[in-house]
Design brief:
The chain is of the alpha/beta class. It has 12 helices and 11 strands. The longest helix has 21 residues. The radius of gyration is 19 Å and the shape is globular.
Length: about 325
């Protein structure tokens, strides 16, 4: 790989970028690369300027802080050139624009790893990005920008899951897997990644809706009898939709999704919750409440708890 791009340097992109910087240095030292690849961060605003000036600062859940200096930090993809690997780390409402923006970076061999919330991110990406490889993927993490140039990893282990794109039997995942291993990014590879995507959706959609409505963090929802029950109801509604769509999930998938919430402290907020709390800020409600409601209606699956929570969030937040 000659050029690796992290597009979007928020909580997820900051985590990925910081770990990649460490991994690339390890691989160069081990002779795994003939030359050091370019590591490019695409960011914007004050965060970009801080990265340019002092590098990307990353604080782990244990409090350890590291600094990564990319080859290039920019808000102009015209400065970047063709990419071998792109981690797409934007919010759902920015996905369409981001996909259009990265088109000049794509080649027939470019690998795109879209790390967004949502059950249909691969489909949305492939509608626009017609070349290269787009790997269905996702990540379990809570991290955010706490000040320009600083990303704090608050909760979750940063587990990444990804897998083979449908029909792309010629894709060799080994170089990407090696990079993730050296970067210290825990990951799982699946020949069929879509059940893993729906397992993640069971987790993130249910806790996004209940944290945004209750004001509690993920761990707070788990510990509260009322809100825990509502999270479980949303998880069962999503599991029923997945079954109706022919997605194979374990019979206890909803219960497993709830148990993942115990990995997060009571103060750990979902990104949707953080966005809803800021007046006028765009949010990913349509990825959760909107999508579940629509899919349920299309498939004849009742989603009363999701519908009520989403309506109440919009009524309280005005968006």
């Amino acid at each position: 790989m000659k050029r690796i791009v992290v597009f979007g340097m928020g909580g997820i992109g900051g985590y990925i970028g910081a770990r990649l910087g460490i991994g690339i240095d390890k691989m160069v030292a081990a002779g795994a690369f003939l030359g050091k690849p370019d590591l490019v961060f695409v960011a914007r605003g004050a965060h970009l300027e801080a990265i340019k000036a002092k590098g990307l600062r990353y604080k782990s859940p244990e409090g350890a802080e590291s600094v990564v200096h990319p080859t290039l930090a920019t808000d102009k993809v015209t400065d970047v050139g063709p990419a071998d690997l792109i981690f797409l780390c934007v919010k759902g409402y920015d996905l369409e624009g981001a996909c259009k923006t990265i088109l000049p970076l794509m080649t027939a061999k470019t690998i795109v790893v879209p790390l967004l919330n949502g059950a249909d991110i691969w489909d949305q990406t492939r509608k626009i990005v017609k070349t290269g490889f787009v790997l269905p993927s996702g990540i379990y993490i809570s991290s955010s920008i706490t000040e320009p140039g600083l990303v704090v990893h608050g909760g979750g282990k940063g587990n990444l899951f990804l897998g083979r794109e449908p029909g792309k039997i010629d894709f060799d995942p080994k170089p990407l897997q090696l990079l993730l291993e050296h970067s210290g990014i825990p990951f799982e590879w699946f020949e069929d990644p879509f059940p893993a995507i729906w397992n993640k959706y069971l987790f993130i959609a249910s806790f996004a809706l209940t944290t945004a409505r209750s004001g509690l963090g993920i761990g707070g929802v788990v510990a509260d009898e009322k809100w825990a029950a509502q999270a479980k109801e949303v998880q069962h509604e999503i599991a029923a939709i997945a079954k109706a769509k022919g997605i194979f999930l374990p019979t206890d998938a909803a219960a497993q999704a709830f148990e993942k919430g115990r990995m997060f402290g009571p103060q750990i907020k979902t990104s949707y919750q953080r966005d809803v709390e800021v007046p006028g800020k765009p949010n990913e409600g349509e990825l959760f409440g909107g999508a579940i409601t629509r899919m349920g209606a299309q498939l004849g699956v009742p989603t009363p708890t999701t519908e009520r929570l989403y309506a109440e969030i919009r009524a309280h937040s005005g968006k």
